[in-house]
Amino acid sequence: MNQISEKSAWAVMGTKAVLLRSRDITVEQGLEHVATWNAAMLRSNDLEEAIQAFLEKRKPVFSKL
Questions:
Q1: Is residue 45 part of a domain?
Q2: Of 10, 24, 29, 32, which alpha carbon lies 20 to 30 A from 56's?
Q3: What is the pLDDT of residues 41-50, one digit of tens each?
């Protein structure tokens, strides 16, 4: 559980939302839903923090929800 808590809260929430939503829709609708979440995540500050932390060889510090 500790590994999950170290990840971006937005990414964890998005993954859970995609998995739950995908159970009740078609594959095509699921892919559209994933594309929407991915587009939102690409604009998040957490992505920038993850990249910067990787380049600086440190653990990322993600924002709270």
A1: yes
A2: 10
A3: 888 899 999 9
Residue 6 forms part of a structural domain: no
Task: Give the span between the Cα atoms of 49 and 20, in whole angstroms.
Answer: 27
The region, left, alpha or beta by phi > 0 then psi within -120 to 50, assigned to residue 57 is left
**31 within domain boundaries:** yes
**Do the Cβ atoms of 58 and 5 come closer than 8 Å?**
no
Total structural domains within the chain: 1
Residue 40 lies in a domain: yes
State mean pLDDT over 38-43: 87
Indicate the pTM of the whole model.
0.70
Domain limits for position 33: 26-59
For residue 49, how far is the Cα from the chain centroid? 13
pLDDT at site 2: 74
